[in-house]
Amino acid sequence: MRILAPAKINLCLFLGPAREEGLHELCSLFEPLALADSIEVSEAERDQVLCPGIEGENLAVRALAALRDRGWEGSPLRIEIEKRTPVAAGLGGGSADAAAVLRLARGAIGELEVIAAEIGADVPSQLVPALSLVRGAGERVERLPQPAPHAVVLLPGGGGLSTAGVFAEADRLGLGRSAVELDELAARLRAAAGAGASPLDYAELLANDLEPAARSLRPEIGAALDALREAGAPLVLLSGSGPTAVGVFPSLGEASRASSQLGRDDAIVCEAGRAP
To answer: Which of 6, 51, 85, 189 could form a disulfide with 36 if both were Cys (CB 3.0 to 4.6 A apart)?
Structure first.
């Protein structure tokens, strides 16, 4: 069986107060991309998760282990992940892989949302890849209508930027908003996106509070954002904790033409707002 694990972008990310356990309250709009990891699942003698070329912790391993801990009795599986989403780039690739594994047990194991939140902050939103208003530290997910067609150009910048490091830098810089501000922003975002509009129709609401922290750690992010503006992107933003710079365009054709102007080998062009 072949399944897909769509990447995501944050159309906005507003940073709130830190919670007792150290995570921050957030208000964000997540949307899926046509860019996705490809996962081959087959029966095996024992559970095995393979991700060629990727070192370090794999959230898909944790997801499968969590299902077994909850008593999932599905056959032992060999899960092989073909990475297409850049790693540690603010695009939720690892979380998407974990969510895809959890979906294998849908209907057999309850409270997948709870399990997802225990694995990682971005995993709950990826259980059902769709435009979502995300609150809390990622565990509160409100699905929104599919947006009007649009496309993006991604400049991943090599990935490798630590999420924890960016949040720590944000704290050092004193970034963040009050809980009241987050509630007000959530209401405005829900009203703007709730009718299936393109994010280009409410671009004035979209920003990423982590951008100054990410740029402090990786100054070249600023050059990538400027390059997308110069290429004609009507909306330019940082996804998640970075370093991926995102240019949003009305159509795939316009995104492709802008990518050609950039002349960057790392540019990725894809449709946004709906999973593949």
So the answer is: 6
The vertex-197 CA angle with 3 and 223, nearest 5°, equals 75
Based on the residue annotation, tell me whether 201 is a catalytic residue of this protein: no
Tens-digit pLDDT profile for residues 122-155:
999 999 999 999 999 999 999 999 999 999 999 9
Domains of the chain: 2-272 (3.30.230.10)
Please report which confidence band the pLDDT of residue 203 belongs to, taking 50, 70 and 90 as the band edges.
very high
Query: Is 265 known to be catalytic?
Result: no
Q: How far apart are CA 236 and CA 107, in angstroms?
A: 39
3-state secondary structure of 237: strand
Q: How confident is the model at residue 34 (pLDDT cuts 50, 70, 90)?
A: very high
pTM, two decimals, is 0.95
CA angle 213, 190, 224 (to 5 degrees): 30
Exposed / middle / buried, residue 128 (Cβ in 10 Å: 0-12, 13-18, 19+): middle
Catalytic site residue from 47, 69, 97, 122: 122
Q: Which of 8, 37, 97, 209 is catalytic?
A: 8
